[in-house]
Amino acid sequence: MSALGNQFKTVLLLGVLTALLLFVGQLVGGMNGLLVGLVFAVVMNLFSYLFSDRIVLAMYRAKPADKKDYPVLHRIAEEVAQLAEIPKPKLYIINNPTPNAFATGRGPKKSAVACTDGILRLLSKDELKGVIAHEMSHIKNRDILVATIAATIAGVISYVAMMARWAAIFGGFGNRDRDGGNILSFLFLAIVTPLIAVIIQLAISRSREYLADETGAKMINNPRALASALEKLEGANMHMPMRSSNTSASSLFIVNPFRGNALVRLFSTHPPIQERVRRLNEMD
Hints:
This protein is α+β, with helices and mostly antiparallel strands and 284 residues long. The protein contains ten helices and four strands. It has helices at 3-28, 32-59, 71-84, 117-122, 125-140, 143-169, 180-220, 223-239, 262-266, 273-281; strands at 63-64, 90-94, 101-107, 110-116.
């Protein structure tokens, strides 16, 4: 799928997510619960959007990458930022042998790219350039903003579904009307809608990963380098997953840094590496 196709897919999925939210509002009838959920989700995700860069960098104890200590990384970042036509992001180093990297920040003027020690040792200069191009594509495409919008809508739906379950426990759903149609509506609201919302949110995340792969590969005119980097990173992270009890920011990394079971992989924010590599190799 082309970059334009991935952008269209994101817009379409956000539209479906919004339609689902409106449908949930219709199911609950009274809009008070929906409005409370909306306010709660907006405040929570606005805070995350404004301070996510500081939070995630602190979470992984990232330190500023001094230009004297990491001249190659800075030179690559300067080259890619020029190609991307965005300001050079701040660079950080995570003292971790597991090779990986992520980008964070609200947009091109306030952004950061963090790399682990491991990725600097594992990849060649061309492969590292491909990874940096992928991360700067996330910045250029404002993926943090897109993810925040999706999280806000999905958060409201999950909140209303939770309130519906509590109302059912205390006999408050549908004014105690227990006809068949009302029960089906409750089941759909309480169980199905939050699951659909999560699936759509994950689909948006995977779509943005494909978009960043393609944008980054075109940026440096070297899809093979990024494909090779992804294969190396996948193998290394499978054998040496990141040691951390906090997996909440795993979606930011270029490959999933935590090993999971089949169910976790099914609900992964990352597309399969094999498919990402295949698409990149077909760009030649």
